[in-house]
Design brief:
By secondary structure, the protein is an alpha/beta fold. The protein has helices at 38-42, 56-72, 77-88, 111-128, 140-143, 161-166, 185-190, 221-224, 229-235, 250-254, 260-266, 273-281, 286-298, 321-334, 360-368, 389-403, 415-424, and strands at residues 102-106, 131-135, 194-196, 202-204, 210-214, 240-244, 306-311, 350-355, 374-376, 407-411, 429-431, 453-454, 468-469, 474-475, 485-487, 495-497. Helix 16 crosses helix 17 (415-424).
Length: 505
């Protein structure tokens, strides 16, 4: 049964006794009804418990952020006043703490990138006491329940395309920005809008009412100064920030001087940031959750004693599928993730979940194990479709199904895999990718040995960090500046958060 065929609400009993497990050890509140968002309370039932608990300080900060979202979110007098000031070009910031400042995340790229970007924006909002609003595109409310009680995290949409076209509000055409605006942090730093005093302090010549933070891959040197302490002090005086990113910025925030102490208090285990924040923020809506749990229970996944999740993403269109399959089979064999086919019988309680855009891999893996292993593939879309609600719902379903597996094999560089491993709290075996940017495929472009490597932590990789040390005024080796920063196994110049005891996952 495909996930698309049955999104009916299954007849299940209401939760009568809500425990700490249901609330993920304090990450979640009971301020949502069970029927409004079943995944909030049922997530723990489908995932093995973890010894890694959120810190009391993180829980307190989440409750504080929820109160801020309620006080300043859409529909409040504070939000209406802030929008009025933005539209009129006022750059007022209430220094006595009574005002509201905002961070708008601009939806960008595929679902995995967007979820990593939202997580980064949320953490930055928590660190800077800003209200997070998500410009999530047309399908955001179809994918996720609201994470904050008694308010919305979605940026209100302007009614009608004509009013948006003629409106002068920066919020009206926010999706038209792709790094080309003159009102980016990088461009403002170069335009004379900033004054540098004799002692090196920086301040606005005239504080802008809003700024774009261009933090996507390929961003320039001056935009990367976002990760410097002086620039963070500048940003504190701007009422509205619009963040454009397809990156997981969290490791960069850990290297930003004003945030280091706070982040270490929030996350004593550095490699559990997405594990906690992803489970706090992202709760599939009832239709998506119904699809996930229906497929999980109707297939042999629920009853399997051992579940292996395989996520295949091919970035070079001309790469031969057989080369990818050979790499996967070698990885599974060398890491001993599945028993040797000849030693298994038809009653073996092992299931393999395959997620890929093509059905070719599912068919070959099923043939490889000759019916001795139950091999499942929920969908095969053929190609990735951006801004397609149905496609995103299936993608989200498969991320969560992968997170329910005991073992994960993922494709390097894939944010889809990052989400699954983060929600699961499992270090995957990562298959290195073939070159992405080569125009033509040729023999010998396949990744070399080994066919896969164990990730050093469950944290996603920050693909394009800034190597600039603001205090030293030069580039540094990022994996040598802090014991909790390491290079990624799948992206040469990427960095990720690790813990000294990361092998506990």
């Amino acid at each position: 049964m495909s996930m698309a065929e049955d999104t009916r609400t299954r007849s299940e009993p209401m939760l009568k006794n809500i425990t700490a497990d249901h609330l993920l050890d304090g990450l979640l509140t009971t301020d949502f009804s069970y029927l409004s968002c079943r995944s909030r309370y049922e997530f723990a039932m489908h995932h093995k418990s973890s010894p890694h608990k959120p810190s009391p300080y993180l829980i307190a900060k989440l409750r504080k952020q929820e109160a801020l979202q309620q006080r300043c979110g859409p529909g409040t007098a504070a939000h209406e006043e802030a929008v009025r000031r933005l539209d009129s070009g006022e750059s007022f910031v209430d220094d006595d703490g009574g005002g509201c400042r905002y961070l708008v995340y601009i939806s960008y790229r595929g679902l995995g990138n967007r979820m990593l970007g939202i997580t980064s924006a949320f953490l930055y909002a928590v660190l800077t006491d800003r209200v997070l609003l998500v410009d999530g595109g047309k399908d955001a409310d179809a994918l996720f329940c609201e994470p904050f009680p008694a308010t919305t995290w979605l940026l209100p949409r302007r009614a009608g395309w004509l009013s948006r076209w003629f409106s002068r509000s920066p919020l009206a055409r926010i999706q038209g920005y792709e790094g080309g605006s003159t009102v980016t942090l990088g461009n403002m730093l170069q335009s004379g809008a900033v004054t540098v005093s004799a002692d090196g302090n920086v301040s606005w010549s005239a504080a802008p009412p809003y700024l774009y933070l261009h933090l996507a891959g390929g961003y320039g040197f001056h935009d990367k100064l976002f990760f410097c302490g002086a620039q963070q002090r500048l940003l504190g005086g701007v009422p509205w920030l619009f963040m454009w990113t397809d990156n997981y910025l969290v490791p960069g925030l850990f290297l930003t001087p004003p945030f280091r102490g706070e982040l270490q208090a929030l996350f004593p285990e550095k490699d559990a940031v997405f594990y906690h924040l992803g489970r706090y923020l992202f709760h599939p809506t009832n239709p998506v959750w119904n699809a996930i749990t229906t497929y999980y229970h109707s297939s042999r996944l629920a009853g399997a004693g051992h579940r292996v999740g395989v996520q295949i993403r091919v970035f070079h269109k001309k790469q031969p599928p057989q080369a990818v399959l050979d790499q996967l089979v070698s990885c599974v064999r060398d890491a001993k993730l599945l028993p040797v086919p000849e030693t298994m019988n038809a009653s073996s309680s092992v299931a393999v979940l395959v997620t890929a855009l093509s059905s070719w891999y599912h068919e070959r893996i099923r043939g490889e194990y000759g019916g001795r292993v139950a091999v499942h593939q929920p969908s095969h879309e053929g190609r990735q479709r951006w801004r397609d609600a149905a496609h995103d719902m299936r993608a989200l379903s498969e991320m969560y199904l992968l997170s329910m597996c005991d073992v994960l094999v993922t494709s390097g560089f894939s944010t889809f895999g990052y989400i699954a491993q983060g929600l699961a709290g499992r270090r995957p075996w990562v298959m290195p990718r073939a070159p992405i940017w080569a125009a033509d495929w040729r023999e010998g472009m396949e990744p070399g040995e080994p066919p896969c490597r164990r990730a050093v932590s469950i944290e996603p990789c920050f693909h394009t960090p800034s190597a600039y040390d603001c205090a030293a005024g030069r580039d540094v080796e990022l994996d040598k500046v802090a014991p909790y920063i390491s290079r990624c196994v799948d992206v040469k110049y990427g960095i990720k958060l690790v813990n000294e005891s990361s092998n506990q996952w």
